[in-house]
Design brief:
Trp Operon Repressor, Chain A, elongated, 2 domains, two-stranded antiparallel ribbon, alpha/beta, five-stranded parallel sheet, Alpha/beta knot, binds adenine
Length: about 220
């Protein structure tokens, strides 16, 4: 899979892909991530990519021309399955969306800034809009990194058995069960006996029950989905 990210602040995206699982995915050539500074497509020598909003109001808006030129440049290079805009006023990212996106070949992600991007770009170029949660961040870079991470770790071969995504929270609309490691007793706090029983079927049942219990307590809405 290839992910291209267009951003005003490429520096913010240097670290997230340089470590751990996404680094391994890149080394194994399972995932390529390219970060492109939008200022390459600025409208003048001052590097302008934003302007005041029509109708008045605080905050700058990212202009059509740099974004349209950037998107058209990349669209000429290859066919994108989705052109994604990260924005809080969109559908919420969830595991099934990440699963679906992990099956794609090429994704182009636009990180917004300031008040957001001109609505005409959203209407005419963007094919999918994603929010990572009901809160507002100062830009779309961290959301783009979150999305790339959620997708990248699902690509076949990226995770090994020990870190398999199959047992993650949300894979079955259930939160993950509790986990324990050695020692079996710490300050008098014991690991549940069943996990030490060596009986895989009983352990699987226990984990499932714990997942259902936790989901009912913390996120009952997931059980109805
Ligand atoms: N940009 C700013 N806040 C965001 C959010 N919650 N999700 C996606 N993009 C954003």
């Amino acid at each position: 899979m290839r992910i291209d990210i267009i951003t005003v602040l490429p520096e913010l995206l240097e670290s997230p892909f340089a470590h751990s699982i996404l680094k391994r995915a890149k080394e194994k050539k399972l995932l390529e991530i390219f970060v492109h500074p939008l200022r390459q497509w600025a409208i003048n020598e001052y590097g302008q990519i934003d302007d005041y909003q029509f109708g008045g109001g605080a905050g700058m808006v990212m202009m059509c021309e740099p974004l349209a030129n950037a998107i058209e440049f990349f669209r000429k290079e290859r066919k994108y399955d989705e052109i994604i805009y990260m924005t809080p006023d969109a559908e919420l990212l969830n595991q099934s969306m990440a699963n679906a996106l992990s099956l794609k070949e090429n994704l182009l992600i636009i990180s917004g800034h300031y008040k957001g991007i001109d609505e005409r770009i959203r209407r005419h170029f963007i094919t999918k809009e994603i929010s990572i949660g009901d809160y507002v961040l100062s830009g779309g870079e961290l959301p783009a990194a979150v999305l790339a991470d959620a997708i990248g770790r699902l690509l076949p071969g990226v995770l090994n058995d020990e870190t398999s995504a199959l047992f993650d929270s949300f894979q079955d609309n259930l939160l993950a069960p509790p986990v324990y490691t050695r020692p079996a007793e710490f300050r008098g706090w014991k690991v549940p006996d069943i996990l030490l029983s060596g009986d895989p079927a009983k352990i699987a049942d226990w984990r499932y029950e714990e997942s259902v219990k936790k989901t009912a307590e913390r996120r009952p809405g997931l059980l109805n989905d």
